[in-house]
Amino acid sequence: MTIYSMRGCHRVAHRWGSLLYATALALSAAGASTSVPRVDDPAKTLREAVDAGRIAYKLTEPEELIAIFDQPLLLGHEEYTSRLIRYDATQASWFSPQSHGSPIAGIAVGQTCGVAPHAFVFYYASPTSMEHRMQADYIREIVKHNESAGASGRIRVISISASPEEERGNEAFMRARKEALDAGILVVTCSDTFLRYGCATLIEGRDPDKPESYRPGRYAGPGDMLLMPAANKTMASYQGANVYTYERDGGMSWAVPYIAGLAALAFQVNPDLQPQTVVEQLVKTATRTEAGPIVNPRGFIESVKRP
Fold it and tell me: How far apart are CA 103 and CA 80, in angstroms?
């Protein structure tokens, strides 16, 4: 594995920061001297962070479908390529892979870093923030797909690492979102109108399976109803087919596919679930810690199983 790190994105603006730690970790791995604080054992750091937030992997093996709306994806990455059923780059065919997509796909369905590594993905690419009407068209396409698909071929979750509910001119999106919810499809976004939630940071060297191993992340607030693991974790990188990034800061963008993966697991164990029930049970089953309410994947899945 080649080690990189990238800064997270802001809750609303999603502005990227520097790649400072990419240099730190890469040079440390090579044994070179650097003015950036040295990582004593970058390979160990990367390896330990693979499991940050992957508790759900041990619960079940879903074959649910997740739709992801995000930036152009690096095709061929070992983490997620086997899970891609459809890749629609109609609006981005002239763009090279961008930094955002690979971590998103890897968190949702990655084979070593993902929450739901047996789920499949319909991926819709856009070079920047997807235009609201385009989002609406894709959502309606998914609703139509479900009408003719069998029970095992329906998309039950849409992952959008942005906040379209809070943006101007979003009327088309909001109408399509309601149609999706009425059709039993959960639309996960960064917006507080979806859920007031934030990010948790794994304390390095701690057991990622234990909720007390996390502290509030950079994007966490006192009013958050749920905190999702998003920082000090390993994720797929767009830099190459076997390249991974070590995420220092975390951001809301990484929390969205985590929830989408958990929702796929929930719909697998109970296809009769309604989207709002998924959200309610994620909050209800969270583990209360000094850091805040940390997501509890095992408790969540147990709470939504059929009686």
Answer: 10
